[in-house]
Amino acid sequence: MATSTDTSVSARPETGLAETPDATTEAPRATSNRSTTPGSEGFKAYIGGQWAERVESVPPAREQASFAAERRARVSAAFPGQRLIIPAGSPKQRSNDTDYAFRAHSAFSYLTGWGSDSEPGAVLVFEPTAGGHDVTLYFRERAGRDSDEFYANPEIGEFWIGPRPSLAQVSGDLAVTTSGIAAFDAVIRSVDTATLVVREADAAIAEHVDDARLRFAAEQALSTNASDSAFSIEVGSEHAPDAKLAEVLSEMRLVKDSYEIEQMRLAVDATQRGFEDVLGELERATSVQRGERIVEGVFNTRARLDGNTVGYDTIAASGAHATILHWTRNDGAVKPGELILLDAGVEVDSLYTADITRTLPISGEFSAEQRLVYEAVREAADAAFAIVRPGIVFRDVHAAAMEVIAKRTAEWGFLPVSAEEALKPDNEHHRRYMVHGTSHHLGIDVHDCAQARREMYKDGVVEEGMVFTIEPGLYFQTDDLTVPAEFRGIGVRIEDDILVTADGAENLSAGIPRTADEVEAWMAAKRG
Fold it and tell me: Where is the Aminopeptidase P N-terminal domain (predicted)?
């Protein structure tokens, strides 16, 4: 049963931060040169009292708590006898003393069930036991209103950022044992050479773990023969065992559980609403100089209304910008007669995201050349989708799409060789017009499972419960002399989110029109 361990935290009068020997709690960025926060004893005494009693209720475990517990059990079984440290991470600085919105590291959220409401600086620790692991979630609990942290610390004080949860509330909510962050110092002091950490989640914690492992290894070397240590004691040496932890956590996410699949459906549904919102504002986008930003803003508004935020920077690429694969400046004009490529996804509060692309004729109708290119891309997407089922190899999805891309570009006379010649591994002339891959796994990261081994990813066998994209495209640059002038500046991508079922596949985003005729009818209906 999950329990809550309360760790008392004493506050320094000048900073309101915990008295801890290590850097697990850091002072807020300096503001003393411009601070006007009162510091008199009279003020401190007055602001610390006469507050209504805080009624604290411990919530029942959230829906995903049982799924997170099962995931933790699998991780425990994979690393018997080893301490595992999975940080949530800390806010990333945007400028001076302002940060980007915090998003917990995906591995941390996957193993805790804590999503958009995660506490920055939290750390999940697997402590080895004879029967597996004891798991504890460490985070910085809110300070009392009698502490100047409450009103004088703009990074974590509730007067500044709003209510924060107690240890007991988080323990009940996530069904996991919790402890104050000050107690995490003892974990660092206990680190040995078998301890593993998710390095990319929090550089400061990774450095603390590295230092502690080096100290442990050095002490062992002085007292025993440590040549069989799992880790080198060279400073800066590659940490392959840490990479193994990241690899296992990535590969666990290749097959989604029922909760994850439901979250993906919610993300796709919200994304569809975002695309429909964009259609309703497309005419307004044509009336301003930087119309792409109208498109971006409209979609991002939907993402904030129906989810946490966007799952990645929205690509609103109009005209020739559509030939730039990751165009996110979105500062171009939206001109009738051209296409606009919208690649966008809503990240819901559980942090699962959709990733969908549609390419739309801004005037509502495709030109002959635009329709030709669009339908070729759609044909490639359909060919890839048609082969998806458990048992195929993941890379074959890309190969199916490429057969169509090679065939069509050869028919149009764009290639110096036949489609058959172009498809040979030593040639691939058709890839000039589509240099990216056709599919990637999707989930709590837009490019999910990124640290999985090649034999589990590109060369892996497709299984029921996997979710990935199918997103072929054709991109004809404005200065590409291998294509006729009337095709230059046309960029088309169609991207859908695919769930592998027991005997085939389901296109989760099929509700967003896909064929050229459907897109034109959809746009006409939205415009009235």
Answer: 63-207
